[in-house]
Specification:
It is a single chain. By secondary structure, this protein is of the alpha+beta class. The protein folds into 2 domains: 83 residues, no CATH class; 393 residues, Beta-lactamase, CATH 3.40.710.10. Helix content is 28%, strand content 17%. It has 13 helices and 19 strands. It has a 6-stranded antiparallel sheet with strand order 9-8-18-17-16-15, with helices on both faces. Strands 1-2-3 form a 3-stranded antiparallel sheet, with no helix packed on it. Strands 10-14-11 form a 3-stranded antiparallel sheet.
Length: 512
């Protein structure tokens, strides 16, 4: 049984309401929630799903979010459960896209703090692993059916062909459930599918397009890691070169940190983004205006490094896995130091052009143009907030890229095929470099390949304050999938808005 939460964990709800435990989305995962009910407004009572006790079982519910109704009647059955506890959420916003970090554990709950719970990010990646497991189950069942026929596909063995899932309907359902804009693609030797649904921005009428770019956040890390490995191959440095030998004094109290430590998130430094924006997010943990202002500031790379140098580190270099944005900011600084070129130009010259990524850019100013999908966040008790003023310098080299799902497919295909670095270097990048639940190597992580038992899909995810993205490829570079979604619920749980696995599971099945 997981930890129970009290009504005090949710802003704006009376504490004398008796919660009850039910299952609340998603398909294939058994996440149990507390439903808290307040006074009746117009029509049905205002209800909200809140992460709560973890149980096994099934239930059918409706959820109501704020004054806007999103009806989701869902039956959930599963054999494993996942709890995301709000009691470890930091008091001021941590970058939501940047993964688990023990440096912020145990901080008090606050509305602004929900914007970046490290546990929430592990939940995103746990959901990805669960999606792979569910897809593998579906694939196994379909391949064992008498009607399954062998199919010629690249690889060591002939696999039965599978009926294609209704990807268009799954994508449309994500928008119906609450996502603002969605774009996705699956590419294999026998399938090339892409589609988009929803709108480009909050309150807008222009439709999301298959070619609409969006902020892809931590998928930027794969690009930076590729550039770093290219410098290894050029003899500029080795993976075990100390950062202090390239930029003396960058981490004065930790001169033993190496390039490998930064790539693999084993340097021991904290996340960095939390430490960076906290001084500007105000003293009221529920002041969302102050938070939006803080993520709209123009931060320098030096400020990122100063923030982690002033904070306690979570361990000694090489001792443990601890996800850090600041580590990739430092890698960008190292690249600029040895090449004399800014990272955005390096990405263009060495990655975007060779891989054919026509719409990918590394940004350093607020604002999006053209058919781009604009970010927005849903705040409990406040509603939707547009993030047009978000400055990508908040993430800098760890997450400032803009890309399309097609470009992400092109990138992971080129990387895994050995077109950007050698096959030996690719193997180093995909090999887990520490004991960590992500199978994280050097700028990439792995999930089990639902199509080929014993093999893996490699790539990364990205989750900014108002968007989610994912890019995966088979190790041989013959199968890719990528998706991007705008609109995130930052105050309760992402599944209270929509369940990404409703689209991701059929995409994984289709990739077979």
């Amino acid at each position: 049984m997981g930890r129970r939460l009290t009504t005090r964990a949710v802003r704006g709800l009376p504490t004398d309401r008796a919660p009850r435990v039910v299952s609340c989305r998603p398909t294939g995962r058994c996440v149990w929630f507390l439903i808290l009910q307040t006074e009746r407004i117009s029509g049905p009572s205002w209800m909200r799903c809140v992460p709560g006790a973890v149980r096994l079982g099934a239930s059918v519910i409706d959820t109501w979010e704020g004054t806007t109704m999103h009806r989701r009647t869902t039956t959930t059955t599963c054999a494993a459960a996942l709890a995301v506890g709000l009691t470890t959420i930091p008091a001021a916003a941590v970058a939501p896209h940047e993964g688990p970090s023990s440096s912020t554990a145990g901080l008090t709950v606050g509305a602004v703090g929900v914007a970046g719970d490290p546990a929430d990010q592990e939940a995103v990646r746990e959901a990805l692993r669960e999606a792979a497991a569910e897809a593998a189950t579906q694939v196994s069942v379909q391949r064992s059916a008498p009607s399954a026929t062998p199919q010629d596909v690249p690889g060591p063995r002939r696999l039965p062909s599978l009926p294609r899932p209704d990807l268009d309907a799954a994508l449309d359902q994500l928008v119906a459930d609450g996502a603002l804009g969605v774009t996705a693609t699956v590419e294999t030797s026998t399938l090339r599918w892409s589609d988009a649904a929803g709108s480009r921005q909050l309150g807008g009428q222009a439709p999301a397009l298959e070619r609409s770019p969006l902020r892809v956040a931590s998928n930027t890390k794969m690009m930076v890691a590729t550039l770093v490995v290219q410098e290894v191959e050029a003899g500029t440095w080795t993976l075990d070169t100390r950062v202090d030998d390239v930029i003396p004094g960058l981490f004065p109290d930790h001169p033993e940190v190496t390039i490998r430590h930064l790539l693999s998130h084993t340097s021991g430094m904290p996340l960095g983004t939390y430490e960076l924006i906290t001084p500007y997010a105000g003293t009221d943990p529920e002041d969302w205006d102050a938070f939006v202002s803080a993520i709209g500031r123009d931060y320098s790379d030096a400020e990122h490094i100063d923030a982690v140098n002033a904070a306690p580190w979570v361990g000694e270099p090489g001792a443990q896995f601890s996800y850090s944005n600041a580590g990739y900011v430092a890698l960008g600084m190292l690249l600029e130091e040895v090449t004399g070129e800014p990272v955005d130009e390096l990405v263009t010259e060495r990655i975007r052009r060779p891989a054919g990524m026509g719409q990918t850019r590394v940004l350093d100013e607020p604002g999006l143009r053209g058919p781009a999908l604009h970010e927005a966040m849903f705040v409990d008790g406040r509603g939707w907030i547009g993030l047009g003023g978000f400055d990508p310098d908040v993430f800098s080299h760890s997450g400032s890229a803009l890309s399309t799902v097609e470009d992400l497919d092109d990138f992971t295909r080129a990387l895994m095929s050995g077109d950007l670095v050698s096959e030996a270097s690719v193997e180093q990048m995909v090999t887990p470099s520490s004991q960590n639940p992500l199978g994280y190597g050097l700028g990439t992580y792995a999930i089990p390949d639902p199509c080929r038992p014993g093999e893996f899909l490699h790539g990364h995810d990205g989750a900014s304050f108002g968007s989610l993205s994912l890019a995966l490829s088979s190790r041989d570079g013959t199968r890719q999938l990528a998706l991007g979604v705008t609109g995130r619920d930052l105050t309760v749980a992402q599944d209270a808005l929509y369940d990404l696995n409703d689209l991701l599971v059929p995409m994984l099945v289709a990739s077979c």
